[in-house]
Design a protein that fits this description.
heterodimer, A: 509 residues, mainly alpha, Flavocytochrome C3, Chain A, domain 2, Butyryl-CoA Dehydrogenase, subunit A, domain 3, 2 domains, two-stranded antiparallel sheet, 2% strand, elongated, B: 186 residues, Multiheme cytochrome fold, 0% strand
Chain lengths: 509, 186
Amino acid sequence: MNAFLQSRTGYLVLIGVVAVAAAGATALLMNISERKAEQRAPYVRLVSVGEDDTDPAKWGKNWPAQYDAYQRTALTTKTRFGGHQGSEAMPTEKIERDPWLKRMFLGYAFSIDYRDRRGHAYMLHDQEQTQRLTKPQSGSCLHCHASIMPLYRKLGGGDAMKGFEETYKFSYQDLSKQLHDSGHAHPVSCVDCHEPTSMTLRVSRPGFIKGIQALAASDAAVPALPSITQWREGRRDTPYDPNRDATRNEMRSFVCGQCHVEYYCSGKMPLTFPWGKGLRVEQIEAFWDGTKFPDGTPFVDYQHKETGAAVLKAQHPEFELWNQGIHARSGVACADCHMPYMREGASKISDHWVRSPLLNVNRACQTCHRASEEEMKSRVDAIQQRNYDLMERAGAAIVDLIEAIVAAKAKGAPQPWVDAALQAQRHAQWRLDFIAAENSMGFHAPQEAARVLGEAIDYARQGQIAVLGGVMAPPAKPGAPAPVAPAPAASGATPASSAAPAASASAKH
Amino acid sequence: MPDDTSKTTVPPDPAARKTVSAVLPIALAVAVGIAAGIGGYTFRYAQGFSYFLRDPKACVNCHIMQSQYDAWQKASHHGVAVCVDCHLPHSFFEKYLAKTENGWRHGQRFTTGNFVEPVVVQAKGRAILQENCVHCHQDLVHDIVLAPSARGEQLVCTHCHSNVGHGEKTGIGGPFKATELTGVKK
């Protein structure tokens, strides 16, 4: 050994070994240096952005990681119950097999065209392509399909709220042309959720701001929205303002609630978020029941083609259903699962590739739930399958009701019987549609979804009995035990609201 | 004469040997010096000495633990316990053994980027954690945890008290992976 070290070869080998060690240490040094560099400057503002910068590409120069992810919303994704062709809620083959969805929507523009759901990047493009535009559609639609705030400000002479309130009078084509002419024809963009100087979250949409103000002013329980409770206990001298009063955590749901909600957006009155009596299905129903169009006629979405029932059409009440669920109650925001935090270098950023958490189980679920990815998917699947099965039963019950009404009318059944059944159809369809149009297949609030579907089935079967001359139980108050004794026929039947509106099918979407 | 010829055929032999044997140790000294210098600087740059101390800031030398560190500052134990009080054994020998083992694993994973996120405590770390909960709280809990069940299992404190250290769960997912894009079903 000693001889080897003193030999020429020995020295050379030793030098080589030391050189390799030095190279290794240098490589490690560089690696540490890179990791330290990751920690510096979360972003560099290369261009300045302002309220009128609706083009996300410009913002992307400052926030490339977020922009890259946002662009991925153009990719096609699908889960077992979402992202298929056809209905928003049903797999393609199911809608072919199960006629109840189409049957329920007879008399509504959705029968014309009903396509594959795609990501945020396509929201404006797809709306401009839909065949539903062959029927008159309102400018209200652009509230949620375009980065429209600059146009609202222009129309209102600087006041976005004023501009917004005018837009329902425009035809979709008129407002769309103005949008394109103004250069703001982009789908939902950075500026819609971020304040451009500080990048803090903010809500911009007038429909949401008015809706949440009405909710705050009501006395409906909102256990998942603590800032509303806090505002109610305060001086209440100014209306609730989400941008001032809401917590950071609430804002991570409110920005989504600007659009993923139930609303009226047709041409008879301004876009309306129906939250003045609360967010639950029967509270929203009561709000619509108490709403009149400017011409004095009672609010209705469309009249059912076969039975003539004045029907409410649910949009996509994700925000409302989420509010009833355990995740909301535990302070888990929309963004926690649909835009979960991810590491990008040393920065913690939100994944702006908004998509189903089922495609992102690791970041969306496993940061809280210490169970395998397969286990998490299987839990969700069990919930969604149960919801789907219950929904099928509700669909069958409503088809039975529609057929019973048609048959009874043909036989000349007494009007009070028919009226009671039509009212039951309105209740039942509203409830089934509330869960079917909602995009989580019951997951956002599984027990609430089952309750709503249970009521839908109950109303449909009660309507069937009523049209055969039986009696309908009065609608149960939430939280009260189900009625046992049959009530007089007159109390359940409310002909005024079901028979009066002669308005033809008015497409909402 | 034969001596002469032998000298003329290999004239510079002893002299050359002398030069080589003089240069090689110098070259080696230079090489060792450079390696030691770079190594030493790397050690300092990487704040290597901080790992021998108990300052929690050492745990965020690498940014991967930043959210855990932030959350610990807001959680109930931050006034009474730092990272090593819960995450390392308290006896000298076992502590440095665990430090070595963790340090090697963390350094190697973080440098190569070969790890799964969100990062979670390993089985060995959980055992250390459990011992340390009991270490401080044994006067209160000895009836519960020191009496093993018939199957020899012990109740795990963090099963229920999971948020005493870092509050709510604080892990975050990692960056996009190539498979996420190729795995997209059209």
